[in-house]
Structure formats: C-alpha cells, structure tokens
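As promised in the previous annual report, we have extended the structural survey to additional targets. Below is the entry for General secretion pathway protein GspN.
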Amino acid sequence: MSPAKRLTTVLGSIAALLVGVFVAQQFGIGAGFDLAEGDGPKKAKDYLSGLSKEGFKLAEFGTYQELIGRPVFNEDRKPTPIEEPKGPEVKPTDIVDLDVTLTSVIHSKDKKVAIVRDNKSNESMVVRVGMPLEGEQSGWKLVEVEPRKVVFESESGNRKDLELAVNGAAIARAEGSPPPAQQPMNNGAPPPPPPPPPAQQVESDAANQAKAEEIRRRIEERRRQLREEAERMRAQESSQ
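The corresponding structure token record, generated without further manual editing, is:
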C-alpha cells in the first residue's frame, strides 16, 4: 500500500469515528450525568471586605505645631536655626596712585580718546572714555575728555584731573621778550636808540629759536601720528 492510500485510510477512520460519536449524542447517550457538588469551581475569598474604602487623610497643619516647635530628632528638642547663605567674600583691591602723564588728546564729536604715558614703564596707552588703564593702574578708568584735560576716576570714587603736558615755556621764550617800555620824552628830544644786544644774548636767542622750532616740529609730528592712529582705529571699527 502506498503512503497516500495509507493516509487516506487513517483520515477516513477518524472521520467515521467522529460521525459515530455525533450520532450517539443525538440519541441521548451520556446525557444523564452531572458533576458532584464538591467538584465545582470554588469562589475566591474576599480578604478586603473588612477594610475601609476611604483614603487616609492627614490632620490639619496646626495639629503638628508641637513637633515643629520641639523636633523629635534633635537632642535638645530645640528648633534648628536657619542660617542665611553668605555670598562670596569680595576682597578690596589695592588701588595704586595714578602715575601717568597726558601726552595727547583726540576730541571730536564722535571720538574722544586720550593718550597717556606710564611714568614708571614709559609706555604709551590709548584710552577711550569708560576704559580702564592697563597693568597696576587698572583701578583707574577714563570718565571725561576735554580738549586740554582729561578726568580719571578710581574704583573707590576718587577723581583726578590730568592737564595736557605741553612745554609752553620754551615756546614763550622763542616768541621773544616784550619790547622794553618807552622812556618819557626828555625836553622834547627823541629817546636814544637802545644799545645793541651783546653777542651772548644773540646766541641765546638763536638757541631758543632753534629749540622752539624743534618743539614745533615734534608737536606737528605727534599730531600727525595721532591722526594716523585715529584713522587706523576708525578703519578697524568699520571693518568689525
């Protein structure tokens, strides 16, 4: 017998058995049997029936004032003091005396700049309004700029004015001394001509004139440098 015929025979036998059981049930075979009373499913015991279904509620806050006033976990039963947080301690910085010389000032509508020289290091610094100095004198900042004067203010509120340092004495000497006062007329005769200046005075006047010219040249050179620095700073600001 081939495997296919064998499988067909087995499936046919199973189908015939099931049809026989169905027919037997239709004729009432096995219909008079019931389960015993103790064999049925048992109901689970309700263990939560005796508990209250309402949630637990705390008493009012005033009821616990005794615990707040006398904490249970403190040995002395005294409330723990509340300390306010302390901010970081700020140590005052030592402000040194202002020791600079005002060498140049740029005063215009849109730009107010001062150029000062540190008398200790002999270095020049360009400072704008509101900017502090560099190095040890950083406690001073520029607050005002005038054509020939600037004002610095320290962190403690002290103010100090600086005048523009210009060697005006040599320029005044170079301009020449005022002419001597005329002597009163003597009997209607004209005053005698003044004596010619000595050679030493002529040489001194020439030296003063040369010094004045040198000072003028330095001032013009410094002004030219300041204009170049201002133009360079303006170009840097516009590029940013």
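Residues 182-186 have pLDDT under 50 and may be disordered. The longest strand covers residues 100-107. These points will be discussed at the next consortium meeting with the crystallography subgroup.
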